[in-house]
Amino acid sequence: MAREFKRTDRVGDALQRSISQFIQQEIRDPRIGMVNVNDVTVTRDFAYAKIFVTFVGRETDEECKAALAVLNKASGFLRTLVAKDLDLRTTPRLQFVYDTTTVRGNQLANLIERAVADDKSKHVDDDIEQ
Which segment of the chain is annotated as a signal peptide (predicted)? Predict the structure, then answer.
């Protein structure tokens, strides 16, 4: 019988919970602000972990890059905290990556809403003329 979840997925979920908690409680840099940890992918040998994050309230790319640089600089500190929290043989090296999927999703949703509103206004105008 095959396993339902891979071990890398389970470790990624545990890392996501642990890292999001430590960022909220231990990192005190105001350049970061509020961080959403969207996903964590772990390599098969558990040597590296990519943490996909978005920043709430950061609108420009420069602010996001600065916050991402702060997180990557603090990755060693966060790795130490994760090693104490989780019982893993090797704690993966953490690499933070800015996740643009939510931003792009919001842009696409706005475009769709605008197109639907334009279409409705054209049909209303056509109905009034007839």
Answer: none
